[in-house]
Design brief:
Blueprint lengths: L4 H7 L6 E4 L4 H9 L4 E5 L7 H13 L3 E5 L5 H10 L3 E3 L9
Parallel strand pairs: 1-2, 2-3, 3-4
Length: 101
Amino acid sequence: MKPNRIKQVMRDGGLALVSHVGFADPAVVEIIAKAGFDGAFIDMEHSVFDLQTVGEMIRVADLCDITPVVRVPDENPKTILRVLDMGAQGIQVPHIAEGRS
């Protein structure tokens, strides 16, 4: 597993820079990396990204040595596990009101 660049920057006392991916094009992730960001925030909740596109974005992030973080559309364990299996290094689950959810 590749190092989590966001965690490393924060461990070193720095501020990790992460950009939102707003277009369903993996090239956007490469642009984010070349711009010097530490991670790409791939939002499945407020976009129409399918799992194939998200997987391609994660692969590009991996190749560009930035950390892919994915906000899944809901708390469905199948979706969360698929995104983790694709290589996401961070997961955000929306609409969690309690720690037991």
